Amino acid sequence: MRLILFGSPGVGKGTQAKILSSKLKIPHISTGDILREAVSSKTPLGIQAQEIMNSGELVSDKIMIGIIRETLMSTKCKNGFILDGFPRTIKQAESLDKLLAELNIVNILFIHLAAEEDEIVNRLTNRRACKNCGNIFSLNDLKDTSVCPACGAENSFYQRDDDKEEVIRKRLKIYEQSTAPVLDHYKKQNKVVSVNGLLSIEEVTKEILTELEKKTGNPIKVSA
Ligand code: AMP
């Protein structure tokens, strides 16, 4: 199965992508994670991307298309993938369509997680990531903010620089201007499934799987 998870920053794409990756046994390709790894290992890409990411702007289409081309052509993606964070501009979407045609991939589906701006700002300002295991939590759900409930690491939570309120507002503006048109691009291709991203994590996953079954007309095999 080949999926694109789409929605505004903070709608829960990363969380759903991780769950679906494990249920459907396909790799989760997050362009944000690829860039953050490059930043923390201080590769030339990371050095170039760091400032742009911290300011909430988008990294250039040329760089992002190069990363996705290399990743989708690698053997780990040959039986499927979930893209999270790409495409984010019409140019990226058009390049992705060309690449998929080159790879003879026709059965791609686009999952749109919908949410309202105020709820997103609230979610993102409360979002914390664990330095140790990479899992993401909301301050609203953490009983003890000094221990990661997933891996047990102590004092490992941090707030991403791009999750500060003024940067979030900017990211949402860029989303509306550059990224939202990508949804129409795939709607025209009749490939979009829309789900309410404000439901609980479990409900969103369930809705996605139900909508995918409806769209494909086939039962979806999931691992526990
Ligand atoms: P994310 O974790 O998906 O919210 O991405 C974090 C940041 O990485 C974004 O705010 C951008 O600066 C950069 N980024 C990730 N994916 C892309 C993309 N497809 N195009 C441009 N910039 C991206």
Please give a structural write-up.
- The protein is of the alpha/beta class and 224 residues long.
- The chain has one domain (2-26, 79-216): Rossmann fold (3-Layer(aba) Sandwich), CATH 3.40.50.
- The chain is 48% helix and 15% strand.
- The protein is built from 8 helices and 8 strands, in the order βαβαααβαβαβββαβα.
- It has helices at residues 13-24, 31-40, 44-55, 61-72, 90-102, 117-125, 165-188, 201-216, and strands at residues 2-6, 28-30, 81-84, 108-114, 127-130, 136-138, 157-158, 192-196.
- A 5-stranded parallel β-sheet has the order 2-3-1-4-8, with helices on both faces. Strands 6-5-7 form a 3-stranded antiparallel β-sheet.
- Strand 5 and strand 6 (136-138) form a beta hairpin.
- Helix 2 crosses helix 3 (44-55).
- The longest helix is centred in the last third of the chain and has 24 residues, at 165-188.
- The protein is globular and about 45 Å long.
- The protein starts with a strand and ends in an 8-residue tail after the last helix.
- The mean pLDDT is 94.
- Adenosine monophosphate is lined by residues 9, 31-32, 35, 52-53, 56-59, 64, 85-86, 88, 92, 162, 171.
- Adenosine monophosphate (AMP) binds at residues 9, 31-32, 35, 52-53, 56-59, 64, 85-86, 88, 92, 162, 171.
